[in-house]
Design a protein that fits this description.
By secondary structure, this protein is of the alpha/beta class. The protein contains 13 helices and 18 strands.
Length: 377
Amino acid sequence: MQNKEAVMGRCVELARNAKGFTLTNPLVGAAVIKNGQAVYGIHEKYGSHHAEVNAIKNAGEDVAGCELFVTLEPCSTYGKTPPCVEKIISSGIKKVYIGVLDINPKHRGQGVNILKNAGIEVEYGILAEECSLLIEDFIKYQTVKLPYVTLKTASSIDGRIACKTGHSKWITGDNARELVHKMRGFSDVVLTGIGTVEADNPLMTDRRKDAARQPVRAVLDSSLKIDINANMVNSAADAPVIIYTSENADSSKIMQLNDKNIKVINVPCINGMLDIKEVLHSLYELGHMNVFVEAGSRVNGSFFDNRLVDRLEAFIAPKIIGGKDAISSIGGIGIDNMNEALVFKDYEINTCGKDILISARINDYAAQAVEFTKNYK
């Protein structure tokens, strides 16, 4: 018997290769132990076979008496594909090792019960924390009914994203900008504000040579000021664009944008700014599970003021900009007392070329899945 944690750990590692392609489905990895060897499979993209089915297929289908590892409880209902439990039972698998149980109300523990009732031995909770972290965006999407929000900043070591003149190109180096393109490619939506669009006229796409998909671009523009010839507007055929604006926006401008295949959605304003939670609810209703915020100080501050950031990717360049009028990375209202300061759940520090990258988890959605798995009987 191979080491259970090692096999499950490899399943987790391989499952990450599908990041950005599974849409509202979770990342899942699986392995069949056949003739003492682990044969792996992952859920490669939305609508395709699930990890368990691919692992069985890769093992040659003849897996009677074999053991199966899977990072997430096998599904028990019909969706884009048949229930994985049916495939497992019909294949003759004798035992299933599960990382974490599914907190999706449609599935919670049902896969385990079906497998047990079919006479298959089931063990769950192997690397439960790692398997839960793999699908933290999915857990939030299922329980909170909002997309998982990652916010990216790129600042000098004194926290500035632009000089007092507004000049900002470039604070970070080529390696950091390449990684940001990859982060866009992993995301369902890249969200920015009209200030960034007006200042930089960006595309907000993944422009790596091997980019396999493009995110939806979303712009917060309460006054609908966007230039009808902006790069994002003119590239809507290559990557979809949604503009969120106020309820009293110019209807003729909306028609112009609609003619360019751009969706314009009205949301309420609070204190002169679009209600960001309503924006996120809209993106959830449109079926987007991951939002990557790449904006300016004002939008960043609004996300933090409303406690809507789940993960921070903070690139810090070894540069000093200085000046009280230089633009900070996070604006907004802020806090009055240090006891109110946002504290990371955990974080990693890495280098990216000459820059530093702090990757921090702000909200912990994985813990509830781990707890559910631990206490399920």
